[in-house]
């Protein structure tokens, strides 16, 4: 499992984990907080990552965590 952290464009901090589920697929979970207060959790799966270099997977997962939270608000 790999951990990622960041801040969304709408001001929420997140802590997430992801793991490679199978070739070209990643599953992730994230917890969102603002000012230390829990606001929610999301999870998801990203498919078709076979052409993405391993060094860029973190960025792809962070983008997915961001867009999942921002679009749901």
Using the alpha-carbon principal axes, give the shape.
elongated
Mean pLDDT: 94
Write down how many β-strands occur, each being a DSSP E stretch of 2 or more residues.
4
**H and E order:** EEEEH
| Order of adjacent strands in the largest pleated sheet | 1-2-3-4
Radius of gyration: 12 Å
Q: Structural class, judged by helices and strands?
A: alpha+beta
What share of the residues lie within helices?
10-25%
Helices, by number, come to 1
Taking the alpha carbons of the first and last residues, their distance comes to 27 Å
- Please give the largest β-sheet: 4 strands, antiparallel
Overview of the structural elements:
This is TonB-dependent receptor. With 73 residues, the chain is an alpha+beta fold. The chain has one helix at 57-72; strands at 2-7, 13-22, 25-34, 37-46. It has a four-stranded antiparallel β-sheet with strand order 1-2-3-4, with helices on one face. A hairpin with a 5-residue loop joins strand 1 (2-7) and strand 2. The chain is elongated, with a radius of gyration of 12 Å. The mean pLDDT is 94.
């Amino acid at each position: 499992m790999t951990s990622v952290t960041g801040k969304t464009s709408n001001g929420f901090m997140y802590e997430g984990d992801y793991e490679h589920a199978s070739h070209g697929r990643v599953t992730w979970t994230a917890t969102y907080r603002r000012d230390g207060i829990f606001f929610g959790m999301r999870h998801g799966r990203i498919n078709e990552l076979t052409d993405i270099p391993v060094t860029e997977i973190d960025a792809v997962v962070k983008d997915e965590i961001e867009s999942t939270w921002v679009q749901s608000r």
